[in-house]
Amino acid sequence: MNSRRCAACKHLRRRCPSDCIFAPYFPSNNPLRFAYVHKIYGASNVAKILDDVPVKCRAQAAETLWYEAYCRIRDPVHGCAGMVSVLHQQLNIAEWQLATVKAAIKNESSNVEPLLDPRPLPPHYI
Amino acid sequence: MNSRRCAACKHLRRRCPSDCIFAPYFPSNNPLRFAYVHKIYGASNVAKILDDVPVKCRAQAAETLWYEAYCRIRDPVHGCAGMVSVLHQQLNIAEWQLATVKAAIKNESSNVEPLLDPRPLPPHYI
């Protein structure tokens, strides 16, 4: 029945077979989700990628394909790899800040060490 | 001439036209680079994506397409989006550590403030 076709089969204007590889991951109520992956990868490549992973992993694979297609449509030059680059930069900055603060603490604590870690009194005080 | 065909035209077993969209970004000495994007996106989708961006951005677009295809072949379930997820987690951890260390410093400095910032002596010491 037409009303039971998944978003992919609707988009491709074909019957939706009972074992449709797309149906569980591209429901008819979200046509954009399939339109995105279709535009970037093409239906046959999406089907091949889904078919090559275990059934239990296909929902995750469809989700990440959709995410990458969405990123590529939003930023055709950098795509999802642009996000990786931005996050690498942010991580480098955060790790540098953390290392700087830790070094400052180490330096500070070595300066105030006598106050925090009492040493034995020198002999003439005993 | 055959020897001047780019990696894409060699892979697709076709003549390499003088205005080949692939040639500047998929040189013949790196056949795997095109094989990866061909496997994941298909040649026509790669050509469409490259054609849709300004010429000066195409090298970057080809590089990110290659990177995403490489990630998808290495990890067919998560692809490049998996890297985004891992980097998000690492960034969250680094930012949490930074916030924790900064809070500890603030707390510590408010505790040791009297030692570092001498207050006026109470009246009976004057």
TrEMBL record, chains A, B:
Q: List the Pfam families hit by this protein, alphabetically.
A: LOB
Q: Which InterPro entries does its entry note?
A: LOB (IPR004883)
Question: Where do the LOB domain residues begin and end?
Answer: 4-105
Q: Report the superkingdom from the record.
A: Eukaryota
Family membership: Belongs to the LOB domain-containing protein family.
Task: State the name under which the record lists this protein.
Answer: LOB domain-containing protein 24
From what organism does this protein derive?
A: Perilla frutescens var. hirtella
Q: What taxonomic classification does the UniProt entry list for its organism?
A: Eukaryota, Viridiplantae, Streptophyta, Embryophyta, Tracheophyta
